[in-house]
Design brief:
Layout: H1 2-14, E1 36-40, H2 43-53, E2 57-61, H3 76-83, E3 87-90, H4 98-104, E4 112-115, H5 155-172, H6 177-204, E5 209-216, H7 219-225, E6 228-234, H8 244-257, E7 261-264, H9 271-280, E8 283-286, H10 295-299, H11 304-319
Parallel strand pairs: 1-2, 1-3, 3-4, 5-6, 7-8
Helix pairs in contact: 1-3, 2-5, 5-6, 6-11, 8-9
């Protein structure tokens, strides 16, 4: 974190003559052009904010599409973006602990802050049966509990987050509040439909169990729709190579319950899912966590709604 603090100090000295350059979905600039500036660390709040704003605000996503979320560190350009924004949205979990140091090193009196984990009822990340214990923070009973930060994976939680972002945008930019409110109502209606369809898929399935040959960042989705899960690692694990015992457990679970699908995540090497699939006949399928998306998906205009709709279809296949 000393490196980040040093960057912040350098940026603070250089910020006045500089304007933030464009990043994903942003036109750049500073506060003086009159448009609301919103910066989000990752894809879900970025996508929620742009759906709410409908073109009436400049929305920036710091995490480049296709990059690893859990090892992200801000660049000087990122810090200028944050310093010049009106609204800053971040997760508040282990993957962006750098945020605290950045915010403490700058004047945030004119900035509105939104923490995703404060928008919903967060749950502790758990180690499910058969899941490999990574020994990382949050896995020891003697340490502080680590809360699962992937709060957006449930459409119900997404709705709560959208309402919070909308309220802050309306307060920060009263002139466009009517547009923001109308866009929010339309978006919440889409989330309600998605929620009902996920519930119907879970209720109508012949099984309630899903298996991941990967990390598991879907605790909120599983809890919302009454699903049981088995996976190689917790959602925020940095490891990607499972032990032979973990792989065998997942293979045995699929064979035992005749589960037709083994899931992997976006930006994964999917080797473990392919290995499990070859051993069991289960079909490896992608389930988007939306924590980040590929560059190709981003450029093709993927949204939270489109990715979760794709998830709905693959989930139906897994439960039937």
């Amino acid at each position: 974190m000393n490196r980040i603090i040093s960057i912040v100090l350098c940026v603070c000295l250089a910020a006045l003559p500089l304007a933030a350059c464009g990043k994903a979905g942003n036109t750049g600039g500073d506060r003086d052009d009159g448009r609301l500036k919103v910066v989000a660390t990752i894809f879900p709040p970025y996508d929620f904010a742009r759906a709410i704003a409908g073109g009436e605000a400049d929305i920036t996503m710091l995490l480049p599409p296709g990059s690893e979320t859990h090892s992200f560190e801000p660049t000087p350009q990122d810090i200028i973006m944050i310093q010049n924004c009106d609204v800053f949205i971040y997760v508040g979990g282990e993957s962006d602990t750098w945020v605290k140091d950045v915010l403490e090193s700058m004047d945030t009196s004119k900035m509105k802050l939104i923490t995703l984990m404060d928008c919903v009822e967060a749950v502790e990340e758990e180690t499910a049966p058969g899941m490999q214990d990574t020994g990382e923070p949050g896995n020891s009973e003697a340490e502080e509990p680590e809360y699962d930060e992937h709060v957006w994976t449930s459409p119900r939680n997404a709705g709560l987050i959208v309402q919070k972002i909308s309220g802050v945008l309306c307060e920060a930019d009263a002139g466009n509040a009517g547009t923001y409110a109308a866009n929010t109502a339309a978006y919440l209606a889409q989330l309600d439909i998605l929620d009902a369809e996920f519930q119907a898929a879970a209720d109508g399935g012949v099984r309630k169990t899903i298996v991941f040959g990967d990390r598991f960042p879907f605790r909120y989705l599983a809890d919302a729709y009454g699903l049981t899960y088995f996976a190689a690692f917790p959602g925020c694990a940095t490891e990607t190579e499972a032990s032979a015992a973990t792989v065998k457990f997942l293979i045995d679970k699929i064979n035992e319950e005749k589960i037709p699908v083994v899931f992997y995540l976006e930006l994964s090497n999917r080797k473990m899912a392919d290995t499990i699939g070859e051993a069991t006949g289960a079909k490896p399928l992608l389930l988007h966590s939306c924590h980040n998306i590929s560059k190709a998906d981003f450029e093709a205009g993927a949204t939270y709604i489109s990715l979760m709709t794709a998830n709905l279809e693959t989930l139906k296949e897994a439960l039937n």
